[in-house]
């Protein structure tokens, strides 16, 4: 009787291991990142998009159709993968913002040194600065993350993962808002 119970226990353990292994393999396959290939990377696509582009024109630039994602919002998005997408937001009749959400790990720059928030605030208070001046101060280009008819926004990520976002007025070329995240 003991050997029969021992044998049933052994078979039960083997079956459990078999099913657990099978399920974990399936789970790993399900978790594989679905990455959509377009005409350009998200950062390159953002450089090609203009605030005056229609959704159809943006689709042509990117190379695949937009969708919606309830987890992200109700705006149309071009989803490159789970961490990178471009959204199309409308405010009123002709106020459009094209916003990129980009995984900060993919845009880290070892050469970028972010200033203290007080130094940045001082620069803003002293007449602000242009994109080119900020690039020189930080030691590297920013990544274009937002386009509208009135402004462009860029993000810098330093080697530690700290992010600086700065918005530049299209007319004056000067920074209007800068913030750390």
Question: How are the SSEs placed, and which strands pair?
Answer:
Blueprint: H1 2-31, H2 42-48, H3 55-62, E1 67-69, E2 73-81, E3 84-91, E4 95-101, H4 117-125, H5 131-138, E5 143-148, E6 151-157, E7 163-169, E8 175-180
Antiparallel strand pairs: 1-2, 2-3, 3-4, 4-5, 5-6, 6-7, 7-8
The ordered H/E elements are: HHHEEEEHHEEEE
What would you report as the Rg, rounded to the nearest angstrom?
24 Å
Biggest sheet character = 8 strands, antiparallel
Q: How many helical elements?
A: 5
Structural class, from helix and strand content? alpha+beta
N- to C-terminal distance: 66 Å
Described by the principal axes of the CA atoms, the overall outline is globular
Tally of DSSP β-strands: 8
Query: Residue-averaged pLDDT, rounded?
Result: 84
What would your notes on this structure say?
By secondary structure, this protein is α+β, with helices and mostly antiparallel strands. It has helices at about 1-30, 40-50, 55-60, 115-125, 130-140, and strands at about 65-70, 75-80, 85-90, 95-100, 145-150, 150-155, 165-170, 175-180. Strands 1-2-3-4-5-6-7-8 form an eight-stranded antiparallel β-sheet. A hairpin with a 2-residue loop joins strand 2 (about 75-80) and strand 3. The protein starts with a helix and ends with a strand.
């Amino acid at each position: 009787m003991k050997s029969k119970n021992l044998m049933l226990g052994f078979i039960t353990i083997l079956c459990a291991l078999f099913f657990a292994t099978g399920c974990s393999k399936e789970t790993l396959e399900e978790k594989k990142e679905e990455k959509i290939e377009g005409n350009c990377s998200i950062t390159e696509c953002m450089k090609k998009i203009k605030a005056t582009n229609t959704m159809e024109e943006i689709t042509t630039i990117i190379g695949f159709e937009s969708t919606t994602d309830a987890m992200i919002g109700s705006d149309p998005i071009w989803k490159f993968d789970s961490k990178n997408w471009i959204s199309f937001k409308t405010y009123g009749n002709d106020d459009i913002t094209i916003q990129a959400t980009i995984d900060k790990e993919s845009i880290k720059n070892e050469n970028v040194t972010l200033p203290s928030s007080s130094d940045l605030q001082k620069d803003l208070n002293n007449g602000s600065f242009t994109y080119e001046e900020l690039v020189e101060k930080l030691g590297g280009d920013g990544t274009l993350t937002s386009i509208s008819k009135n402004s462009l926004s860029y993000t810098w990520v330093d080697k530690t993962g700290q992010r600086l976002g700065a918005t530049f007025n299209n007319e004056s070329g000067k920074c209007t808002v800068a913030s750390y995240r």
